[in-house]
Each structure stands twice: as C-alpha cells, then as structure tokens.
Amino acid sequence: MSHTAHIRSHRKPRRSASTIAMRTGVASGVLGTLAVATAAGSANAAEPVTQTLELPVFTGDLAAQVAQSAQATQQAAANYQLNAERDAAAAAAAKEAKKDLADAKKAEAKKKAEAARKAAAERATRSAERTTLSSTASSSSSTSTSSSTATGSAAAVIAFAKAQIGDAYVSGGTGPNSWDCSGLMQTAFKQVGVDLPRVSQDQSTFGTQVSLDNLQPGDILYWGSAGSAYHVAIYVGDGMFVGAQNPSTGVVEKPLSYDPPSGAVRVL
Predict the structure, then answer these.
(1) CA-to-CA distance for 141 and 199, rounded, in angstroms?
(2) Is this structure's pTM higher than 0.70?
(3) Which of 128, 242, 246, 248 is the most exposed place for a label (fewest CB within 10 A)?
(4) All domains of the chain, ordered by start, with CATH?
C-alpha cells in the first residue's frame, strides 16, 4: 500500500460537464439580456417621445344642441331683419305724414291769404264807393235841404222813427223797445198803411229807385246793392237819417256823411 494512500488530495474536484454547461448558459443568458436592454435603451434614447391627444367625440345630444343653436341663430337673424324692415317702413310713413302735414298747412295758409286778400279788396271797394257817395251827398245837400220839410205820410213815418231813438239794436227785433234796421222801417211805414217787406234786401227794391242827389224826407236809404242790401234807414231831411245801426249805437240819427248810403227808394 502506498504511503500516500490515506492522504486526502488537495486538488479541487473536477466539475462535471453538465454543471459547466449550465453555468455557461446562465452567463450567456445574463449577457444576452444585458445586451438587449442596452440596445433598447439606446434605441429609446434616440427616438423622440410622441404624445397622443384624444379629440372629443360628439354624442347624439351634443349634435342636437349644436343644431338647435344654429336654428336659434338663424331665427334671431330673421327677427332682426324683420324689425329693421318694420323700422324702415315706420320711418318712411312718418316722413310721408310730415310732408302731408306741411302741404296741408301751406294750403291752409294760402287759402287764408286769398280770403284776406278778397276781404281787403272788398273793403277797399266799399270805401271807395262810400267816398264817392259822400262827395255826391255833400254836393247835393242844398237840394236835399231845400225839400227837408216832411209833410203828410212822410212826416208821420219820420216822427215814429225819431221816437225810437235810443232803443236797442237786436237782430230780428221788431219793437217795441228793440229793433233791427229793417224791422224799424217796416213798423214805421205800417203807421201810414204801407206794408213793407221784412228784410233789407227786399226793401231796397220796394218802390221807385231815386238818386242820392234828389232825396226827399221819407225815402228809404239802403247800403249795398239793390236786391242784396245789408242795411236800411229812413231819410229825415237836412242831410240826416234815422236807423237802427248796430248793437253798439242802437237807434240813432246821423248825417249822411257818417255812413254814406249806396242808393234810395221812394215809397210815398
């Protein structure tokens, strides 16, 4: 027996082939994993990071709301247009009404001016006639006064008329204390049985027309034209007349120059 037979060997025991293979595979796997991880990290480091935004998805209710909003907007636009058209129509109507009013005022002013012109012309004509009659009456006063003494029926009519001097003038009055011009004449001539018409227009054509330069007491004087006279009185002689003049004076005696008459008629 060898002297070393009982001495334990100091050499490491040999590893089996399977163990070595297994360890080699594990190491290879670890290295492979590290390689892959390293490659992935490099790749990730090279590629940019991209973020994804999610857009909202319209649901059925939201679409209906959008449609209603669009419809409301259209309706508001239509209402605005309608109101604008109404405002324009109202403005046009107001302008037309203003123009019509202005035209009406112009027409009324023109009408008043024409009426005033006619009235002024009539007054001027009447004044001219009175001036002419006054001159005629003045020039014929000697003739009138030469036959100024009333006699017979004329004296009775004149006496009645003078007795009413101071009485009031009332339109339509026929006495005994208030008269209008034709009412006084009718009642005065009734005292001698002469039935005169009631109104001035008819009295101015009753009897015989006489000129103002040949007057006699008892003649009826009239103002205006024969058949359309607006006033009457009685000539009492001496260039004087008596008549119911107006509400301010009542029944008075005045000279012919006070208000020259237009003509005269003789009924006695």
Answers:
(1) 28
(2) no
(3) 248
(4) 140-266 (3.90.1720.10)
